[in-house]
Amino acid sequence: MQTLTLIQPDDWHLHLRDGAALKAVLPHTVRQFSRAIVMPNLKPPVRSVEEARAYRHRILAAIPSGKQFEPLMTLYLTDNTSPAEIMAAQASQFIKAVKYYPAGATTHSDLGVTDLRRCDRVFEAMQAVDMPLLLHGEVTDPAVDVFEREAVFIEKHLIPLKQRYPNLRVVLEHITTSEAVQFVLATDKTAATITPQHLLFNRNILFKGGIRPHYYCLPILKQEEHRQAILQAATSGNPKFFLGTDSAPHARNRKENSCGCAGCYTALHALELYAEAFESVQALDKLEAFASFYGPDFYRLPRNGTQITLVKTTWNIPQEIPFPESSLIPLRAGEAITWKMMEN
Ligand SMILES: NC(=O)N[C@@H](CC(=O)O)C(=O)O
Ligand SMILES: [Zn+2]
Ligand SMILES: [Zn+2]
């Protein structure tokens, strides 16, 4: 039987939510990953060191007994974030990054930043203490085509930001376009996370035989040429590209809705999905570094010591998972998948 043993991976972009939802999804992540960069887009968002400390304790309390997991916390940037909060975040040790959401771009982003330039004093402080900036890189201008919003953001906002703060370390999150790949390759102190859905699917899946809300996430899936560009980047062995699932749970009734939420749920089977993507281009030998080395290297954390094993065997992804309000539909629910993580 074909097996694949990896140093235990970490998830460098994850939504854990809070309360009963947190309790429902955390065991899945804990099974696959040792650490995760936890997104701060709660309602209300995690804007201060004290809120991050309290959220971190709620996560720690929800870890299944006997399991090891380290949540790496982030702060939600607003127009009003102060440089002093950045200094306090750096001193906290448990806050590893600051997250930028353009106001209104995605789930729970209404308190996000209205204009990047308003945060210049904060970026100066982040650059000074070497705190990474994580970006949801899309413009929100309704006049810009939804498929162009990442490329326009890079051109109009991110290139100028990096010109003002060349030493600010940035991670362009969940990249979806060849423009993003080109930007990351060309820019110092810049990395990117890549999700399983953006490696496996192009936008056709959204309309395959009907509208499929469980494939809807932001940034939206793009054309095939973009999928190929990010698959090439992920499997290239370049340490600027690493794993971030963007697993984003929403209850079934909120996805299957006349105005459905954005987000794909992959925490259950992320490594299997990534393995399929890497195998599709004969690059399984590149998976371990993408999943387990380049993220900790970027965040200047030690690589994990434990290992996990994937086995080449076919199983069916569950149709649904228990979740508050209704249920949770994992990506590719009910379909077969050809890798399986062994219980450890
Ligand atoms: N990716 C998504 O489609 N949704 C994320 C937010 C985000 O990462 O943009 C969520 O929190 O649901
Ligand atoms: Zn996002
Ligand atoms: Zn996200």
UniProtKB/TrEMBL annotation:
Top enzyme category: hydrolase
Binding sites annotated in the UniProt record for Zn(2+) 2: K99, H136, H174
Active site: D246
Residues given in the record as Zn(2+) 1 binding sites: H13, H15, K99, D246
Pathway in which the depicted protein is active: Pyrimidine metabolism; UMP biosynthesis via de novo pathway; (S)-dihydroorotate from bicarbonate: step 3/3
Record-listed E.C. numbers: 3.5.2.3
Keyword Translocase: no
Reactions mediated catalytically: (S)-dihydroorotate + H2O = N-carbamoyl-L-aspartate + H(+)
SUPFAM superfamilies reported for this sequence: Metallo-dependent hydrolases
Cofactor(s) for this UniProt protein: Zn(2+)
Record text on cofactor binding: Binds 2 Zn(2+) ions per subunit.
GO biological process, one term: pyrimidine nucleobase biosynthetic process
GO MF, one example: zinc ion binding
Binding site for substrate: H15, L16, R17, N41, H136, L218, H250, A262
Entry-annotated residues carrying N6-carboxylysine: K99
All copies of domain Amidohydrolase-related, residue ranges: 11-304
Pfam families on file: Amidohydro_1 (PF01979)
Key words of the record: Hydrolase, Metal-binding, Pyrimidine biosynthesis, Zinc
CDD domains, alphabetized: DHOase
Family matches, as HAMAP family: PyrC_classII
Family to which this protein belongs: Belongs to the metallo-dependent hydrolases superfamily. DHOase family. Class II DHOase subfamily.
Function: Catalyzes the reversible cyclization of carbamoyl aspartate to dihydroorotate.
SUBUNIT field: Homodimer.
Name under which the protein is recorded: Dihydroorotase
Taxonomic lineage from the root: Bacteria, Bacillati, Cyanobacteriota, Cyanophyceae, Oscillatoriophycideae
